Amino acid sequence: MTIRNAEVLVTSPGRNFVTLRITTEDGVVGLGDATVNGRELATVAYLREHVVPLLIGKDEHNIEDMWQFLYRGAYWRRGPITMAAIAAVDIALWDIKAKIANLPLYQLLGGASRIGALAYGHASGSDNESLFTSIRNHVDEGFKAIRVQTGVPGLGQIYGVATDQRPGERYDYEPAKRLPLPAEENWDTRAYLRHIPSVFAAVREEFGPELILLHDGHHRMTPNQAASLGKSLEPYDLFWLEDCTPGENQEGLRRVRSQTTTPLAIGEVFNSIHDYQTLITEQLIDYVRSAVTHTGGITALRKLMDFAAIYQIKSGFHGPTDISPVGQAAQLHLGMAIHNFGIQEYMKHSPETLEVFKTSYTFTDGLLHPGNNPGLGVDYNEELAKSYDYTPAYLPVNRLLDGTVHDW
Ligand code: CS2
Ligand code: MG
Questions:
Q1: Cα separation, 32 vs 86, whole angstroms
Q2: CA of 320 to the centre of ligand 1 (A)
Q3: pTM
Q4: Closest to 203 (Cα-Cα) out of 187, 214, 191
Q5: pLDDT beyond 90 at 170
Q6: How many CB atoms lie within 10 A of CB 277?
Q7: If you average pLDDT over residues 153-164, what whole number do you get?
Q8: Pairing mode of beta strands 397-400, 184-187
Q9: Which atom of ligand 1 is nearest to the CA of 408?
């Protein structure tokens, strides 16, 4: 059997998504996610101009060969756009292989290693009161694990803080704004470092010791600042402190690791197993944050997790709304099968998005399950998708109070 057709589908139900649809000569369809937030059209062009012509007539069963062909054959390796394009092909081919086998994908990846995947949701508030409301909303929805982001006195809009929610209201935060230019946000790390420990003290006071809490430093601290925050958060028993310092400086984590026992998670902006070499072999992190879409697909992420398993490092796959339901389903299937699963990020997609992408995954008592439909279990409503035109959107840019550009 061979690949008869491959199409790059772009839609924007609330936010932009790029999906690759591969069809075999027998009409079996596979979907893959190639969404890179704020740079969507780059993967569209890479796929349409440089990858789709290479797929037609190829044997859809040879997933590893296809992966190597697209990675080594490109000569120019790695990077977010290349690896998202390869990921889209890889995910679609695994979807096809599982559909041909008439099995849910996790069965092909080794079967279920657990009854479900522990998931964490996003809670935020401009102050502690509104944060508590957001946390209660998530607890009421069944979340056992919650990421806490909060406003910082003196600073305006910052990362991860959605409009304050009323009781029962959905956390709705889309950082990529549909504007002609990136919005600029202000940042002051010292104000943040003074404020955050008091927030976790208040949350533990209000919700007790058992609720699983996570926090995202979003790449904003120096290694020494990250070490100091990690230490000051130790009394509040966080599941992890994420992206505490830019991960490109892998050695920088040695400083953090030597100063605190707060678990560390990194990797959502990484694109390759090579980005983790020092972090994993020196056990400088506890969780791999890569998303299947940005790391070359299921084939590559599974190898990364096998490497991490040797060092008892677990998964914490990146799952915000800019990972499409196709990408989320793919990493959920992988998360069900691998032994060293840690936790899955679950920022719920909008009702509009879930009308275009019909998913089979379920969320019960804090656990996600991919469902048992053949393949990924995601269908794409093309008619509806066509009604949502692509709309340029940018992630914000961050500036320190003196105007210096800083990590957003
Ligand atoms: C974040 C993301 O979910 C997370 O952990 O770091 O929301 C990130 O900001 C977005 O994916 C950027 O597109
Ligand atoms: Mg993050």
A1: 9
A2: 6
A3: 0.98
A4: 214
A5: no
A6: 12
A7: 93
A8: parallel
A9: 9
Over residues 154-175, the mean pLDDT reads 90
DSSP H or E run through 206: helix 189-207
**Cα dihedral 159, 164, 165, 171 in deg (nearest 10):** -10
Residues in contact with ligand 1 (CB, 6 Å cut-off): 37, 175, 216, 218, 268, 318, 320, 322, 345, 395
Locate tokens 């800019």: which residue?
Answer: 322
Pull the structure tokens for residue 372.
């048992």
Catalytic, out of 122, 218, 219, 369: 218
What does each C-alpha distance from 102 to 330, 371, 372 come to in angstroms?
A: 16, 13, 10
**One-letter amino acid identity for 406?**
H
159 a catalytic residue: yes
Amino acid at 229: L
Residues with Cβ < 8 Å from 351, sequence gap 6 or more?
Answer: none
The pLDDT of residue 5 is above 90:
yes
Distance 97 CA to ligand 2 centre (A): 31
**Helix, strand or coil, per DSSP, at residue 49:** helix
Q: Do 292 and 316 touch, CB atoms closer than 8 A?
A: no
Ligand 2 centroid–CA 215 distance in Å is 9
Mean of the per-residue pLDDT values of the chain: 97
With CA atoms as reference, report the closest residue to 405 among 150, 190, 187, 160. Answer: 187
Q: What is the mean pLDDT of residues 300-312?
A: 98
The reply to whether 218 belongs to the active site is yes
What distance in Å separates the CA atoms of residue 256 and residue 254, rounded to the nearest whole number?
A: 6
Type of residue at 33 = D
pLDDT exceeds 90 at position 164: no
Residue 35 has pLDDT above 90, yes or no: yes
C-alpha distance from residue 99 to each of 30, 77, 270 (Å) = 8, 30, 30
pLDDT above 90: residue 168: no
Residue 9 Cα distances to 12, 20, 48, 157, 394, angstroms: 10, 6, 10, 33, 20
